[in-house]
Automatic annotation (TrEMBL):
SUPFAM superfamilies in alphabetical order: FAD/NAD(P)-binding domain
Cofactor dependency: FAD
Lineage: Bacteria, Bacillati, Actinomycetota, Actinomycetes, Streptosporangiales
Any GO MF annotation of the entry: monooxygenase activity
InterPro entries the record matches: FAD-bd, FAD/NAD-bd_sf, RIFMO-like
Name of the protein in its database record: FAD-dependent monooxygenase
Start and end residues of each FAD-binding domain: 7-344
Organism: Nocardiopsis endophytica
Region (Disordered): 133-153
Keyword set, alphabetical order: FAD, Flavoprotein, Monooxygenase, Oxidoreductase
Entry-linked Gene3D superfamilies: 3.30.70.2450, 3.40.30.120, FAD/NAD(P)-binding domain
């Protein structure tokens, strides 16, 4: 058994959740090690979408630019199973569009940032066992002898905390004894990245035939075709052969569709499961390890990024010894209810997409409601999590609409220059903003909260804001003097005593 150097945090899984979490932790000086089972990155992307919520969160870390430079924007959310689009025009977002970009490229960009901040990545290492005690966690992993990293054979890694970002079949979750209740898959969908011999046979959009509907999405040099698997095998993980896919395609459309090439064939189910807890002592879960759901709405990668964005700053401060009491517990308190909503919304969309004639009256009613003024934007906000509001412990949560929500990316004039609020939040510190000549409230400086005085033409009646390090609004004083609770309580709840700096090494939680 080879013993590796210790780490503050061990992350199992180098998908979107694990890599963004590594960025968040390493950027704050947390010694972070990512272990990934696959020796090499997969060649194909399941996901191709970053939604408005993800882009808003990435912008709060100064990370959105490389994705925006490469992606292809569309002004609406993915199909929701209704004859109306979830239009993002007027929605509460700084990025009113959906960005088409392959998941593999998302992972590559995040990996580049994680490594640049000092995170370490071990590919080709499979987690075999994980145990924890009061002082930390110990993981036993086995290195693939054909992988790119040394050494070969068993490796033991100790860390103060371990985070499972290792997918729906998470070994971390199983080793921690965390339940994963929910509903198993009852229907299966075939996915084929294919090249039709005649492009006119599979043009973008839905194609309905006597045996069902085929959804076709354009991709560079090929199309992605999705349709219900009419005869799923006993083992859904068995390969999808070109013959199986061609037969299902012909059965759905009622005509043969010659294919010049099969780039990737697979299937996925509509299972919906949610971990019964996101934390067990020093072990936490994020991404698909914590929740799986039908792929309706193309939201999977985005929910994983939200988990990492919420967890990163809280875990960093816990490791550094600066976190207020129970700060880390707010990760589950905020993200598990959000996952419950995602499961409910995606199951509803899957039902509407299923073509059940018994649901037609419900679909007609929803279409009528959503078609009203403001309806498409409201639907988009709900499905994409743009209406996410975290409980802040305030006495009057209705006193200002920004409380608990991600503060909009205000255009400010501060210290004689124009600056976006997202630029100030990107420093990962709590921020107290006094607006339009209002006095800066006392009671935050001793907690290391950064204070900024600024002018803003769109303050929406706010005179002062306390923002958490993730950009969510924790406290508001309005221009007429009303406050959403006590500022001191909000600072104590979210910032602790030394939010502005990393303590001496002796104060850090190490195994």
């Amino acid at each position: 058994m080879t013993r590796r150097p210790t780490a503050d945090v061990l992350i199992i899984g180098a998908g979107p959740a694990g890599l963004l979490l590594a960025v968040e932790l390493a950027a704050e000086g947390v010694d972070t090690l990512v272990v990934e089972r696959d020796a090499r990155r997969p060649r194909r992307s399941r996901g191709f979408t970053l939604n408005a919520r993800s882009l808003d969160l990435l912008a709060r870390r100064g990370l959105a630019a490389p994705f925006l430079a490469e992606g292809h924007p569309a002004p609406h959310a993915p199909s929701v199973g209704l004859p109306v689009t979830a239009d993002l025009d007027g929605a509460a977002t700084d990025h009113p569009f959906t960005l088409g970009i392959p998941q593999l490229r998302v992972e590559e960009i995040l990996e580049e940032h994680a490594l640049a901040h000092g995170a370490r990545l071990l590919r080709g290492h499979r987690l075999d066992a994980l145990r924890q005690d009061a002082d930390g966690t110990t993981a036993r992993v086995t290195a693939d002898p054909d992988g790119p990293d040394e050494p070969d054979g068993p490796v033991e890694i100790t860390a103060a905390f371990a985070v499972g970002c290792d997918g729906g079949r998470s070994t971390v979750r199983k080793q921690a004894g965390i339940g994963f209740p929910g509903t198993p898959a009852t229907t299966w969908t075939l996915l084929g990245d294919v090249v039709p011999a005649d492009p006119a046979d599979l043009t973008p959009g839905p194609h309905t035939g006597p045996g069902g509907t085929v959804f076709v999405l354009p991709r560079p040099g090929y199309v992605r075709a999705m349709l219900t698997d009419p005869a799923p095998p006993d083992d859904p993980r068995s390969p999808v052969t070109p013959g199986i896919f061609a037969e299902a395609l012909e059965g759905a459309l009622g005509r043969p569709v010659p294919l010049a090439d099969h780039i990737w064939l697979t299937r996925f189910g509509d299972a919906a499961r949610l971990a019964d807890r996101y934390r067990d002592g020093r072990v936490l879960l994020a991404g698909d390890a914590a929740h799986i759901h039908p792929p309706a709405g193309a939201i999977g990668v985005n929910v994983a990024l939200e988990d990492a964005h919420n967890l990163g700053w809280k875990l960093a401060r816990t490791v550094q010894g600066t976190a207020p009491d129970a700060l880390l517990d707010t990760y589950e308190a905020e993200r598990r209810p959000a996952a419950e909503r995602v499961l409910a919304h995606t199951r509803a969309q899957a039902l509407l997409n299923g073509g059940d004639p018994g649901l037609r009256p419900l679909a007609d009613l929803l279409t009528h409601l959503v078609s009203r003024p403001g309806g498409p934007a409201a639907l988009a906000e709900t499905l994409l999590g743009l209406d996410t509001r975290h409980p802040m412990g305030a006495d009057d949560p209705g006193a200002h609409p920004w409380l608990g929500r991600l503060a909009p990316d205000l255009d400010l004039v501060a210290e004689g220059r124009r600056v976006r609020l997202s630029e100030l939040v990107a420093g990962r510190r709590a921020l107290l903003v006094a607006l339009n000549g209002a006095d800066a409230p006392e009671g935050a400086r001793e907690a290391g909260v950064r204070t900024v005085r600024a002018h803003c033409a769109a303050a929406h009646g706010a005179a002062a804001l306390l923002l958490r390090p993730d950009g969510h609004t924790a406290w508001v004083r309005t221009a007429d003097g009303r406050e959403t609770g006590d500022l001191g309580d909000a600072v104590a709840r979210w910032c602790g005593k030394t939010d502005g700096g990393v303590p001496e090494p002796a104060a850090r939680l190490r195994p």
